[in-house]
Amino acid sequence: MAERLRNFRALYAQRRDGGYSVAFRDLTAADLPEKGDVLIRVAYSSLNYKDGLAITARGKIIREFPIVPGIDLAGEVVESRTPHFAPGDRVLAIGQGLGEIDWGGYSQMARVRADWVTKIPPPFTPETAMALGTAGFTAMLCVMGLEHQGVVPDSGPVFVTGAGGGVGSIAVLLLARLGYRVVAITGRPEVHDYLRGLGAAEFADRQAFETPGPALQPQRFAGGVDNVGGTILANLIAQTRYEGAVAACGMAHDTDLAVSIFPFILRNVALLGTSSSNTREPKRSHCWDRLARDTDLAMLRRIYRIEPLSRLPELAEDIMAGRIRGRVVVDVNA
């Protein structure tokens, strides 16, 4: 009961002057929404592009106010109204509406709906679970999508756009570990050594894909993971081999996609829309099991750094400006 009464720190968003403001605030468990089934002492969260949009108010991410942003969290169960979880269980929750319609992870305590909560699979800890978080989960969904479409290491090279970011870095790590030849596409040459250390075999400058090109181009890639959208994605689809597949999961470059029908009807290319936000069971647990099996923890430690909750406003600006390499894990108690 003492756990429920003590004050805790959170990043709090509330409506103001036709928009909303975000600031740190001291709360108690009584302030948390009652609709959740599991009370969690949060240890770590993470910073995603969507979080950057929410904190800086540059995107219509938050749909309910007041709210605590943060689409990821991991920690320990304090109380549970369901038999599926017990005090002391180490758990995580990502997406599903956290930080958008329900209070999220930028808080030292959270009350979450039971069907949004997953037990952290070994060998992960709350810290390494958040090093993956939504980014790692999305990257693995993309990999599983490519596998389902028959894109295997022997099919040929695969690309990863936005390779220096969170999803991109983990996609490079996973694909290389699984035996694919990975072409990392980035506009930041300073991250080449970092990506080479994660397993990237080749590099391409994103500027080479930013000008609209022919509907069908030389067949270079067996498939890939795209984080950016727009003209870059359209050109890469045009360069995908017969019966290849592209998993699209981001919009860092552009939300519009002007692409010819020809790659789809002449080369049988598949475009796989990939969203992690509403992934349900049993696929959600299967994805985490794959991450537990296929993630090299030593390599994962190269991808992330830990930052305190207090730095979130400036880190949000950094991720919006493309200045974040890899992943940021947020220590909500630091």
UniProtKB/TrEMBL annotation:
Ranges in coiled-coil conformation: none
Superkingdom per UniProt: Bacteria
CDD domains xref list: MDR_yhdh (cd08288)
Pfam families: ADH_N (PF08240), ADH_zinc_N (PF00107)
UniProt domain Enoyl reductase (ER): residue ranges: 18-330
InterPro entries linked to this entry: Acrylyl-CoA_reductase_AcuI, ADH-like_C, ADH-like_N, ER, GroES-like_sf, NAD(P)-bd_dom_sf, Zn-ADH-like_protein
Molecular-function GO terms, alphabetical: acryloyl-CoA reductase (NADPH) activity
SUPFAM superfamilies the UniProt entry points to: GroES-like, NAD(P)-binding Rossmann-fold domains
Descriptive protein name: Oxidoreductase
The organism of origin for this protein: Candidatus Tanganyikabacteria bacterium
